[in-house]
Amino acid sequence: MKPHLLLIEPMMPTIESALRDAFTVHPYHSLEAVLPIAPRIQAIATGGATGVPAPLLAALPALEIIAINGVGTDAVNLNETVRRGIHVTTTPGILTDDVADLAFALLLSALRQVPTGDHFIRTRQWGKNTLPLAHKASGKRLGIFGMGHVGKAVARRAYGFDMPVSYHHTHNLHLNNAYFVPSLLELAQKNDILVLSASATPQTYHSINQNILEALGPKGLLINVSRGSLVDETALITALQNGVLGAAALDVFEHEPNVPEALLSMENVVLQPHRASATVETRLTMGQCVVDNLLAHFSGRPLISPVLPKTPSSGASTTAS
Ligand code: 8YV
Description:
By secondary structure, the chain is an alpha/beta fold. The protein contains 12 helices and 12 strands. 34% of the residues lie in helices and 15% in strands. It has a 7-stranded parallel beta sheet, sandwiched between helices. Strands 2-1-3-4-5 form a 5-stranded parallel beta sheet, with helices on both faces. The structure holds 2-keto-D-gluconic acid. 2-keto-D-gluconic acid binds at residues 9, 47-49, 69-72, 95, 274, 277, 319-321.
């Protein structure tokens, strides 16, 4: 008898097929639709941002494991999973390069106004109108909030662009290639570009507020490849509208998939639909990691990449979109 698995977020066809080989897979549509089979569900596969809604978690008495197809654990109540002895796994390391790559794609898109140039040609304006000059990227000062795997990968890329790099993190990591700044405010003041790659935690919630945006300034660029909850989106919109902040390039939003109307019409904003890890290569490896963790659990082998209960000193480092 195959264990019953609830698939909350679709995965690649080959991965879903591998899941169906080993599990009776139930695609998730709504809590109501799950209730008749809820007592049989032993496993969940889900995305990082989607996680497991609290009422759903409470409705699954036989749940043994939640396999997250991502690195963010903020959408799963880890206190509750620890209390109930439910295992949680993620896909660490696999998406680091993709997320850092997208941070740089956003950086270059925003400063060099790549989407504007593309739109200019597609709307047949080339030869009829002129485009304003864009902004130089190389040599700009880059600040990173959250120096985990993704933050470090962003720093490595920044060196190819001759960018001096500084960072703010829960503590000083004594890195050779980036200097530690003890406060987020100071990090925003000192840099032209601020990349967000910190975890979504109660401590980082709305940490990018009006003060930070003002400190980054009218020529500053905010890049978010972490979670929308880090940014006070209302303050961000006001800052962009009033010229308090120069520009923003965002892969994540506070209430996905709802993106505030105001952002859609802003020229100084570049938007992506939370897809920093969405490449064929990476999603295939992530998906295989999800499958491997689930298979390991149900065959009594050690999990490949379990989320370990937090100790008081294990501060949040980095998540990735
Ligand atoms: C994915 C993410 O987009 O890793 C995370 O936490 O949010 C992303 O990489 C997501 O997990 C897939 O839904």
